[in-house]
Amino acid sequence: MNSPQETQPLTLEAFQTTAQAIEDEIGRVIVGQAETVRNVLIAIIAGGHALLEGVPGLGKTLLIRTLAEALELRFNRIQFTPDLMPADIIGTEILAEDERGGRHFHFQPGPVFVNLLMADEINRATPKTQSALLEAMQEQTVTVAGQSHRLERPFFVLATQNPIEMEGTYPLPEAQLDRFLFKLNVAFPNVDELVAILDRTTRDTQPHAAVAADGQTLLQMGTLARRIPVAGHVNQYVAQLLLSTHPDHPNAPETVKRYVRYGASPRGAQAIILGAKVNALFSGRYNVAFSDIEAVVYPALRHRLILNFEGEAEGVTTGNVIEVILNEVKIE
């Protein structure tokens, strides 16, 4: 696999053609959810991970499986449960015997050694097991028995969780939430979409996505995105947005000071810029506009704001807070 420096970027036209082909293939299987599909693609092209939240039955698992098909990625699914152990994810050292009867420890890789890992219902596992993904998500390595093992690029984690079921779940620690580039809320389908879902899923045959790209192409798309320039005043705007999420900042809106306990980390600003770069390419531009920032600010920040007790008691959401910030932070 090529290193990031050796990966050559695509042209803008090739990027758009490939991205459209991927979305078309996913659309053969997934009904609606255009915004979710686009944001998952943005996160993957940017080299990040995504957390999908929604009630059961909305097609989160099907979307991730279809994405693996369309991108020809090696794929594994881990069903997170309270009894799942870290070794069940990253692998373990096992005692093996060679032809001469000698014994030695041999590393048995876990299901994390793929290109696309689906962490299904990630909030059902204990914090100890959840944290087993931290090194893989941040460094793309895992360490077992003092030995570091590198994961193959590209590597993405797409995790799902159910927001309405609280019994037997363990909320993700803030440090792990921060490793997800985007958090996406999967919406319930409307009437027309529900009719189409019934039509597709109650037949004797099921649609499947054809291959539209591969892992190397994704790396090339990501390389092109990182080369997109960002003007100084756009970076300044993103920095102001991020600082406005902190209640102790003098320019924070009153809503933030009243309802937010902790604001977003610098990773939030990085997620906005990377997502905006990819969004600009989807729009056929070699520069980042303010509209690109606004297109990705919600998925980039909604999981990075921590509300205080008053905010939770009054039913305020992080989306409400982000909306206020966008309205009050002026573009200069």
Explained architecture:
By secondary structure, the chain is an alpha/beta fold. The chain has two domains: 208 residues, 3-Layer(aba) Sandwich (Rossmann fold), CATH 3.40.50.300; 101 residues, Helicase, Ruva Protein, domain 3, CATH 1.10.8. The protein contains 15 helices and eleven strands. The strands form four sheets. The protein has a five-stranded parallel β-sheet with strand order 2-5-8-1-9. Strands 3-4 form a two-stranded antiparallel sheet. A two-stranded antiparallel sheet has the order 6-7. A hairpin with a 5-residue loop joins strand 3 and strand 4. The N terminus is likely disordered.
Short recap of the structure:
With 332 residues, this protein is an alpha/beta fold.
Hey, roughly how much beta strand do the residues contain? Answer: 15-25%
Helix content: 40-55%
Named CATH topology of the largest domain: Rossmann fold
For the secondary structure, the number of strands is 11
For the record, what is the CATH homologous superfamily label of the largest domain?
A: P-loop containing nucleotide triphosphate hydrolases
Calculate the terminal CA-CA distance, rounded to whole Å: 43 Å
Question: What is the SS-derived class?
Answer: alpha/beta
Name of the level-1 CATH class of the largest domain: Alpha Beta
> What can be said about the biggest beta sheet?
5 strands, parallel
Structurally, the number of domains stands at: 2
Shape: globular
Order of strands in the sheet with most strands: 2-5-8-1-9
pLDDT below 50 for ≥5 consecutive residues: which ranges? Answer: 1-5
- The whole-number mean of residue pLDDT values reads 87
CATH architecture of the largest domain: 3-Layer(aba) Sandwich
Order of helices and strands: HHEHEHEEEHHEEEHEHHHHEHHEHH
The number of helices is 15
* Rg computed from alpha carbons, rounded to a whole number of angstroms: 21 Å
